[in-house]
Amino acid sequence: MSSSRALEDAKVPLLDNLASTVRSNDGQDVDDQDQYLARRFWIESKKLWHIVGPSIFSRITSYSMVVITQAFAGHLGDLELAGISIATNVILGFDLGLLLGMASALETLCGQAFGAKKYYMLGVYMQRSWIVLFVCCVLLLPLYLCASPFLKLLGQPPEVAELSGLVAMWLIPLHFCCAFQFPLQRFLQSQMKAGVIAWVSLLALVVHVIVSWLFVYKLKLGVVGTAATLNFSWWVLVFGLLAYTICGGCPLTWTGFSTEAFSGLWEFVKLSVASGVMLCLENWYYRVLVLMTGNLKNAEIAVDALSIW
């Protein structure tokens, strides 16, 4: 009896030591898991921001160019600011919503081709997108050429509609610029070259500020000069991205112009139109709000305030 009791007494500390060892091991495993998750989170965040950060910056610079243009127009007068605001937010905004949506089809196609290692197809897809979007720009030209009667029909004040129509005419080069800029951006983004877009966007923003100051304050070109500045900066963006692409920046995905780009256009059109409609429904509601504001009393001030907001 005494020996068995002694054996039982000896088991107690052994079990306690074993339990404490298991608890410490469990705690260590939990700490290791937390450290692993934190390390993985840091690694994945760096990968994500390597792409997202430059993309956010390039989008901010694009919007900043329009904001800067409106700011310079605000120094010219209330009517000029209202004219610029309606031309950029309504006419150009409707246009950009459709073209940007149609170019978004390229994200799916280029992403799939890049993942499947069919690198040459990225260049072919981009050229198809250029063709489709350029034809779309030609079909949308009446939106710019007939902007004044169109705005009057929607109830805008005559003086604002006339000035907006004049500004819209000067935005036609920017209109065609979008047919090349949007596909180029998606072509490079699918290859994780968002940094290139960010640097070229920064260059375009600097050019825009300098040209705006020159046209408005030095050359005194008025509202027409203010609108023309957007053409310079956006085409700088196009030529910068195009130069990077064709001058060796994308040796695998850009193999030169190809006649293959003219094949399968109808299927590409259907995919592009579907993408364009989805983005338009999201983008156009604000444009409608600006148009409705033009029907209020003191329409110039109301449009100016809403555009600045």
From TrEMBL:
Spans traversing the lipid bilayer: 48-72, 84-109, 130-151, 163-184, 196-217, 232-256
Family from the record: Belongs to the multi antimicrobial extrusion (MATE) (TC 2.A.66.1) family.
Coiled-coil ranges from the UniProt annotation: none
Keyword DNA-binding belongs to the record: no
Protein name from the UniProt record: Protein DETOXIFICATION 27-like
Entry's Gene Ontology cellular component terms: membrane
UniProt keyword annotation of Methyltransferase present: no
Keywords annotated in UniProt: Membrane, Transmembrane, Transmembrane helix
Gene Ontology molecular function terms on file: antiporter activity; xenobiotic transmembrane transporter activity
